[in-house]
Write a structure and sequence with these properties.
Elements lengths: L4 H8 L3 H12 L4 H13 L3 E3 L7 E2 L2 E2 L9 H15 L4 E3 L10 H10 L3 E2 L2 E2 L23 H21 L3 E5 L3 E2 L7 H17 L6 E5 L9 E2 L4 H11 L3 E6 L9 H10 L3 E6 L16 H17 L7 E4 L8 H21 L2 H9 L3 H12 L4 H11 L5 H7 L2 H9 L9
Parallel strand pairs: 1-4, 4-5, 6-7, 7-9, 9-11, 11-12, 12-13
Antiparallel strand pairs: 2-3, 8-10
The structure holds manganese (II) ion.
Manganese (II) ion (MN) binds next to loops.
Length: 424
């Protein structure tokens, strides 16, 4: 389904005057040129939505369906189209292979194109056994001690690159779930060497203008060790592969209280941060809605991302993606909430007075340093988000619009109650 642009305009109209007054209020604190700059940055910012995020979420204990789920890749792209129409921030999709192999590449491309959606990073999957596959990944894939399993996993990643090439994607994300459940299960050095050799084989097949993004995670699905457990290991492997390989940071893939903003700063200074997965967590890799638990943390991370984007030309532009699970929520509502949280943190980080901060840091005025960051964090930047959306034809209040337009009801009428999306 598609929303009639007129419907969005009609929803925006009554709130426009109030919005303008809120925006004027911000102009009493920040210069007009800064506000203009932030609004433009927000309009340009696009976050990819993964093709596996549009179906009902759940945990390993259960899954609660909600009706109107997308039953095909085409419908998933249409759902992203709806979110993009409302927010103007979801202009990309990140495909998971083999869950979402396009049957008709040309048709899928044309559909995405008509909705203003591009194909961001491709995701391979060697954490599950695939139907009819000769080798099992039970004991690992790219790092397995079994050569045939390693070769099959490398082959799969190359196939994902080939599909991505046809779609116009420009990067491959490898999240290697390989690890050990028990001490002594494997030799740490052997599996790391295998992982490196396999990644190099995949890297050799990358098109000239592509990137290889290497994700890390400390534990889960294996509970004793993970082959690529932290940013240092990923960084080392990316360096071993070459200049087109980068580290990908997933917010949930850290042990509790890890200083993620420092990791971001370190990687960007080395020009090696390539991708970013958004989510939030309380205990582990909870994949909660972005900004739902630790919004100040998210702001501090964005503060480093903005600094890096402005000061590290050696770092490439990043592949942004939401990697969360809505669990009991309507996924589309959850994704709208996540996009809002991302833009809020980004806008706040753009408001940080960097000159004043530098001066306070040089003068070791610790109190002032904290005040400068928190001044930005405590600013209600939502009028800036609304202004950006208003200018690009989105809804000023996307979540409210989603509800008022009764999108879920319309999707259920169109697709029924019983469809089940492919994926986890
Ligand atoms: Mn991830």
């Amino acid at each position: 389904m598609r929303i009639d642009q007129q419907e969005i305009r009609e929803l925006n109209n009554p709130g426009t005057d109030t919005h303008k007054r809120c925006l004027e209020g911000l102009k009493t604190v920040y210069s007009e040129s800064l506000i203009e700059r932030v609004v433009n940055r927000l309009s340009d910012f696009q976050v990819a939505l993964p093709s596996w995020a549009l179906g009902a979420g759940g945990t390993r204990f259960g899954r609660f369906s909600y009706g109107g789920e997308p039953g095909s890749l085409e419908q998933k792209i249409e759902d992203i189209g709806v979110i993009h129409q409302l927010t103007k921030t979801a202009g990309a999709v990140s495909l998971h292979i083999p869950w979402d192999i396009p049957k008709d590449v040309q048709a899928v491309k044309e559909l995405a194109d008509s909705l203003g959606i591009t194909f961001d990073a491709m995701n391979s999957n060697t954490f599950q056994d695939q139907e009819g596959a000769a080798e099992s990944y039970r004991y690992g894939s790219l790092s397995s001690v079994h050569q045939a399993a390693r070769e099959q996993a490398v082959e799969h990643n190359i196939e994902v690159i080939r599909i991505g090439e046809q779609l116009g994607s420009g990067s491959l994300t490898v999240w290697l779930a390989d690890g050990a459940n028990f001490p002594g299960q494997y030799n740490f050095q052997t599996v790391l060497k295998h992982a490196e050799d396999s990644l190099k084989k995949i890297y050799r097949e990358l098109p000239e203008d592509w990137k290889l993004l290497i994700e890390y995670k400390p534990y889960e699905p294996n509970f004793y060790s993970t082959v690529i457990q932290d940013w240092g290991t990923s960084f080392m492997l990316a360096n071993a592969c070459g200049e087109k390989a980068f580290t990908l940071v997933d917010l949930g893939h850290h042990l509790p209280n890890t200083n993620i903003e420092q990791i971001v700063a370190t990687l960007m200074s080395q020009g090696k941060l390539g991708g970013f997965h958004f989510n939030d967590s309380k205990y582990g890799d909870d994949d909660l809605t972005v900004g739902s638990v630790k919004p100040y943390n998210l702001f501090l991370i964005f503060n480093e991302l903005v600094y890096g984007m402005e000061n590290n030309p050696q770092n490439p532009s990043l592949a942004w993606m939401i990697d969360a699970s809505h669990n009991i929520k309507d996924p589309l509502e959850d994704l709208i909430q996540s996009l809002e949280a991302i833009l809020i943190a980004y806008a706040q980080a753009l408001l940080v007075d960097r000159e004043a901060l530098l001066e306070a840091q040089q003068g070791s005025d610790v109190v002032r340093c904290q005040e400068i960051l928190q001044d930005a964090y405590r600013t209600d930047v939502r009028p800036l988000l609304r202004e950006a959306r208003l200018r690009s034809g989105g809804a000023m209040y996307p979540l409210q619009a989603y509800r008022e337009l009764k999108i879920r009801k319309r999707l259920i009428e169109e697709r029924g109650m019983r469809v089940r999306a492919t994926g986890l």
